[in-house]
Design a protein that fits this description.
One of its GO terms (molecular function) is metal ion binding. The protein is mainly alpha-helical. The protein contains 7 helices and 4 strands, in the order αββαααααββα. The protein starts with a helix and ends in a 12-residue tail after the last helix.
Length: 219
């Protein structure tokens, strides 16, 4: 997954930031959620310039183009990225805290793979371009699923009128011991997202899902 994201970084910035000028921050991220690996593409844009539905369409365009780019990738370019990632993993810790954090994570997650970095290096040496491309295309196929999160700001700069209902009874607490509490307002989907399953109640949606135990990545 890290290797895939490394290949994504430059074309992601080039397409979404440089060519489409969607925002200064456009980047892919490797994710490990309770042992489930994945990647995300994040774009921070101005609501006064682009709406979030358009941004999602452009992200989809980028991913389609990235698949073609990976198909045309030479073996030499692939091996160059593999070598770069191996060197990153073989770098010595700059301070004792890095080693402590890495090993303590293995203890807290009850995985105890204290030689994980060396195992990852060995796996990278065996990785082929065909395997990486196959994984990406499989998870971009017609049966793949994704979660798209749109966070839209509220205020006069976004073209929203000032709300006078903030002091109504039953509005709920506006602050806590942790600071200000943000209230979510779920916006209806536009025709651009007509084929999407819109989540307007997070708790109700998650209650319909299966609950799985923490997935340990042991090899």
């Amino acid at each position: 997954m890290e290797l895939l994201v490394m290949h994504m970084e430059e074309p992601c910035f080039d397409f979404l930031r440089t060519k489409e000028t969607l925002g200064y921050h456009a980047y892919p991220t490797c994710r490990n959620t309770s042992g489930i690996l994945g990647f995300s593409v994040t774009v921070e844009t101005q609501a006064t310039k682009f709406n979030s539905e358009l941004v999602e369409q452009k992200i989809e365009e980028f991913l389609e183009g990235f698949g073609r780019k990976m198909s045309a990738l030479t073996e030499e370019a692939f091996k160059t990225q593999v070598t770069a990632l191996i060197k990153l993993k073989e770098c010595e810790d700059t301070h004792l805290g890095e080693e402590v954090d890495r090993n303590w994570f293995e203890v807290l997650s009850q995985q105890y793979v204290f030689d994980r970095l060396s195992r990852e290096v060995d796996a990278l040496k065996l990785m082929t371009k065909a395997e990486l491309l196959s994984w990406f295309l499989e998870h971009r196929g017609p049966h793949s699923r994704k979660l798209s999160v749109h966070v839209v700001g509220f205020g006069e700069e976004e073209g929203d009128a000032a709300s006078a209902g903030g002091d109504e009874e039953g509005a709920g607490p506006q602050c806590s011991t942790y600071g200000e509490v943000s209230q979510l307002t779920f916006l209806p989907a536009t025709p651009r997202l007509a084929g999407a399953s819109v989540i307007t109640d997070i708790r109700a949606f998650t209650s319909t899902l299966n609950l799985y135990p923490y997935h340990k990545v042991l090899k």
